[in-house]
Amino acid sequence: MPLCAIAHLNFGYPWWISYGHLPLVVGAVSILLLGYRRKWSKWPMLLLALLVLWSGAAFLVARFVLDINGRASLPTQNFLPSGVGRVLDIGAGTGRSSIMVLESRPRATLVALDLFADSFEQHFGRGESPQQRLLANLKAAGVEQRATIQSGDMRELPFNPVSFDAVVSAYAIDHLDRQGINLSLSEAARVVKPGGEFLLILVAKEPWLQFTFGPLLMHSGIRGPAWWTTSLQDVGFQVLEVGTHPGTLYLLARRP
Ligand SMILES: C[S@@+](CC[C@H](N)C(=O)[O-])C[C@H]1O[C@@H](n2cnc3c(N)ncnc32)[C@H](O)[C@@H]1O
Question: What is the mean predicted confidence (pLDDT) over 120-143?
Answer without folding.
Answer: 94
